[in-house]
Specification:
The structure holds 2 protein chains of 2 kinds.
Chain A (H helix, E strand, L loop, with lengths): L20 E5 L4 H13 L2 E8 L20 H14 L3 E5 L1 H17 L6 H20 L4 E3 L4 E4 L12 E4 L22 E2 L7 H10 L21 H8 L10 E4 L5 E5 L10 E2 L9 E7 L4 E5 L5 E12 L3 H8 L4 E4 L7 E9 L2 E11 L6 E6 L2 E12 L17 H6 L13
Parallel strand pairs in A: 1-2, 1-4, 2-3, 4-7, 8-12
Antiparallel strand pairs in A: 5-6, 8-9, 10-11, 11-12, 13-16, 13-18, 14-15, 14-17, 15-16, 17-18
Helix pairs in contact in A: 1-2, 1-5, 3-4
Chain B lengths: L3 E2 L10 H13 L9 H21 L4 E6 L2 H10 L6 E5 L4 H11 L23 E3 L9 H9 L5 E5 L14 H10 L3 E4 L18 E5 L10 E6 L24 H39 L4 E2 L10 E7 L3 H10 L2 E2 L15 H7 L6 E7 L6 H22 L9
Parallel strand pairs in B: 1-11, 3-4, 3-5, 5-6, 6-7
Antiparallel strand pairs in B: 2-8, 7-8, 9-10, 10-12
Helix pairs in contact in B: 1-7, 2-7, 3-4, 7-10
Chain lengths: ~425, ~400
């Protein structure tokens, strides 16, 4: 696991005679700690910055047990310790207002409309990088770095001047975080450093240990940072107005409209989730659709979860016009529709303003409105958007199971009654 | 790049003279002052001499000099020490070392330990300490104390008002407070940690019943403070243990720290006549530099009498943490306000009390000067501060990035 000091995957040193100032976002986790260390060792002037995204509710900080999220007070203290060890300045920036507006309010809004949001996508590609860029500029920084497991490479020589750098998946397939970064401002691409993108997680831990960083053995963060203990239903009920429709009882119906039971509020459901309906039904039922207007939750057999197409809105691209035309013209691409799933073959059938119509080569299970859809060409991130509508539901055979490394629907459904679905997991 | 230290209100660097006498005291007076042997007696003699020195410096003929481990401890002792006599009535600008204990007492924490009578009609568990307002000029309405006391859930056991506000430099006018205390027979506590060498300290017969001083604000050591306690004012200890400091502050005394404190206080008082106008001049230089580039900067307490060494400003349209980081990278040590509030979000209670809902509209910046501030470095600081402010202000007026998703 030893990483040689001459390993070509380590960050390249700055040009001779220069010492560019790089702002490193330090969450207090092992990844960003090592990212900062590697840049210091490569010869950059590094500033450590921790974004304080929200405050724990002072009334119940410890009552619910220790938190394993990334941006809490412990994270700030750990990041400061690492910065001291590396001999770099460390600052804490309070972005609570932006974070609440861009991430938490959006999270609540999406659930209230029957969709399943990716708050970590919003945070990473929106709040975090936008704020880092604005602050980095004011602090005279020439680059921004994080501990994400993704890579950025310069454009190929034949792409001509002004072409955008390529954002690529991380080399460690198990840790790759490209799914979370489709919304990066394109202006930021040339300024980004991801020192860990070519390494595996065990290698990063080994490098942390070797350098005696206090964060070396820190466990992975798993929860959404602002939802204590992953109880997002409880969180929503505290954030939404009392008697909000999303928290009111409604019907559970079949595809044919037959009422099969009652639920205690559709905000508790996610498309693809297995819904136990008591005895009398031979096979498990799955949530197929949430209809916020009528508060109906539509359920059906697993086969009915498959969709052949989807409408993706709020689309953002990280590529040049030429490539964009090719991609929108129906060139085969990969699309990833949830975290920790591989990409599957698809084509864009039509595009308008900020939305595209996507057809999967093979229908996909549990395409979930609100989740991000990220477009790839090989390992390269082309862009992404939010799944707005799902279409082409088919009850016929010939349904794909979602790739070998994807979440099988059955496991998705096992633990979902009161906890966050895997689609809500942190990067 | 040389560092320029503009945070003396948080801590002033240790003066070399103080360092020298402390080293000597540590060598000679290392014994336990309560021990009966020669080593103990030597420490005791040093401590007693130091106590007498502080008493003489302040002309405190009717006060006990109680050495504590700092300003916060002195404040806590003054407030909690009066808990059996009622609840504290404090100015709206008090430091958290006064405000938070006062809040605890008014919420009933004190009743667990005391028999303070509670008025049956009083509201239970108020969310704020009992306060009287201080205007931006430092003026205090004498009637406001009567009004506050009338609405109190229990009798007032102590009144607390600072001599210099640490975030803004505002010097509250103590006269109406003194008169109210005299009229009602209530002891007055004055937190004067920012005052020595900067604004005149009340001395001799002018001394309030209780007075807090701190070592590290004066170029003395950390971890030592003083509470002057008038002999006629009963006070209970807050820490319990041995009989040191007349039982008011148990625990083995730090003789060298006390010696260092007395030396720093002596130097500050001796130099006050020269230092005060010098600090005033330097502060005005910084103030002018800021207003030159940020015409709508809000000078906190700018309308009234302020201490010469503290400049509190509100810079509209910038983020406070970014401003401080930028200054730090330019070699300037500055503060957003009281260092004791680090990590607490939102505008400080002091700025809220002075500016109401507008308190949060501007990023708070506090620059404070001290015994080793030099004119040349202040000139240099003014340039760097202007550079940072211009850059930040320019950038925040234009969008810096796109928003997606």
């Amino acid at each position: 696991m030893f990483v040689d000091p001459k390993d070509p995957r380590l960050p390249a040193p700055p040009l001779p005679g220069t010492r560019p100032r790089i702002l490193v976002a330090m969450s207090g986790g092992v990844d960003s700690s090592v990212a900062a260390a590697l840049l210091v060792e490569a010869g950059y002037e590094v500033l450590g910055v921790t974004m304080k995204t929200f405050c724990y509710d002072e009334n119940q900080p410890l009552a619910k047990g220790p938190s394993k999220t990334c941006c809490g007070l412990d994270g700030i203290l750990d990041a400061r310790q690492v910065a001291d060890r590396l001999g770099i300045p460390h600052y804490v920036f309070d972005v609570e207002e932006d974070f609440t507006r861009d991430v938490i309010d959006d999270f609540v809004h999406e659930y209230a409309h029957g969709r399943t949001p990716n708050p970590c996508v919003r945070c990473n590609s929106n709040t975090k990088f936008r704020d880092l860029m604005a602050r980095g500029e004011l602090l005279g920084c020439q680059g921004i770095a994080t501990g994400h497991y993704v890579r950025v490479t310069p454009p190929a020589p034949d792409e001509g001047p002004g072409a955008l750098p390529h954002l690529l998946r991380g080399a460690d397939a198990g840790k790759d975080q490209a799914y979370f970064l489709w919304g990066l401002p394109t202006a930021l691409l040339p300024l980004l450093h991801f020192p860990l993108g070519a390494f595996t997680k065990p290698e990063v831990r080994a490098m942390a240990r070797e350098r005696g960083l206090v964060t070396a053995e820190k466990p992975e963060s798993q929860e959404i940072c602002f939802v204590p203990m992953g109880d997002y239903r409880d969180f929503l009920s505290r954030r939404l107005a009392p008697r909000h429709p999303a928290l009111e009882p409604g019907h559970i119906v079949s595809i044919d409209g037959e009422v099969l039971g009652e639920h205690r509020g559709f905000a508790g459901f996610t498309v693809g989730q297995r819904k136990g309906l008591g005895g009398g039904f031979p096979e498990p039922y799955f949530v197929l659709e949430i209809r916020p207007e009528s508060r109906e939750v539509v359920v059906g057999p697993k086969e009915a979860l498959a969709s052949a197409t989807m409408e993706v809105g709020d689309v953002h691209w990280l590529i040049d016009e030429d490539l964009l035309r090719t991609v929108q013209g129906g060139h085969p691409i990969g699309v990833q529709i949830r975290h920790r799933a591989g990409s599957v073959a698809a084509r864009i059938e039509g595009a308008s303003d900020a939305s595209v119509h996507v057809r999967f080569d093979v229908p996909q299970l549990a395409v979930t409105p609100g989740q991000s859809a990220v477009f790839f060409l090989g390992d390269r991130v082309l862009g992404g958007g939010r799944i707005h509508r799902v279409g082409g539901r088919t009850l016929t055979a010939g349904i794909a199971s979602p790739g070998a490394d994807a979440e099988p629907v059955s496991t998705r459904a096992t633990s979902l009654s009161e906890t966050a679905p895997p689609s809500l997991q942190r990067p | 790049m040389n560092r320029i230290y503009l945070d003396h209100a948080a801590t002033s660097p240790l003066r070399p003279e103080v360092h020298a006498v402390m080293a000597q005291a540590q060598a000679e007076g290392w014994g336990n002052p309560s021990s009966p042997h020669a080593e103990g007696r030597r420490a005791r003699a040093l401590l007693d001499g130091t106590r007498a020195r502080v008493r003489d410096l302040l002309g405190a003929r009717h006060h006990r000099v109680v050495f504590t481990r700092g300003g916060t401890e002195s404040d806590n002792l003054a407030i909690f020490g009066r808990r059996t006599f009622g609840i504290p009535l404090i100015s709206a600008l008090e430091h958290s070392a006064v405000r938070v204990p006062a809040l605890h007492l008014v919420q009933g924490f004190g009743r667990l330990h005391s028999e303070a009578p509670t008025r049956p009609e009083a509201p239970t568990r108020p969310l704020a300490p009992l306060t009287f307002p201080v205007s931006r000029t430092g003026a205090i309405d004498p009637d406001s104390l009567d009004r506050a006391a009338a609405g109190a859930p229990a009798p007032v056991g102590v009144v607390s008002c600072q001599l210099v506000n640490s975030e803004t430099g505002i010097c509250p006018d103590l006269t109406p407070v003194r008169q109210w205390c005299l009229r009602t027979g209530t002891p007055l506590h004055v937190d004067a940690v920012q005052a020595p060498g900067r604004v005149p300290l009340p001395m001799g017969d002018e001394l309030p019943a209780l007075l807090t001083l701190s070592g590290h604000k004066l170029g003395g050591p950390h971890g030592v403070g003083v509470l002057l306690v008038h002999r006629d004012v009963p006070l209970d200890p807050h820490l319990l243990g041995g009989g040191q400091e007349g039982g008011l502050r148990p625990g083995t005394e730090d003789v060298a720290a006390a010696v260092g404190f007395a030396e720093a206080l002596s130097l500050a008082l001796a130099e006050a006549d020269v230092a005060s106008p010098r600090l005033d001049y330097l502060r005005l230089r910084l103030e002018a530099a800021i207003v030159e580039v940020i015409p709508d900067a809000r000078i906190h307490g700018g309308e009234g009498h302020r201490a010469p060494h503290i400049l509190g400003v509100g810079i509209p349209g910038v983020s406070g943490d970014l401003l401080l980081a930028s200054l730090d990278l330019e070699g300037i040590a500055a503060a957003p306000g009281s260092a004791c509030r680090t990590g607490t979000p939102g505008p400080s209670p002091v700025l809220q009390a002075l500016y109401g809902p507008e308190a949060g509209d501007a990023a708070p910046l506090r620059l404070s000067l001290g015994w080793n501030s030099q004119e040349a470095e202040i000139e240099e600081a003014a340039l760097r501060i202007q550079r940072v402010l211009s850059r930040i202000r320019r950038s925040t007026s234009t969008p810096v990035s796109e928003t997606v998703a």
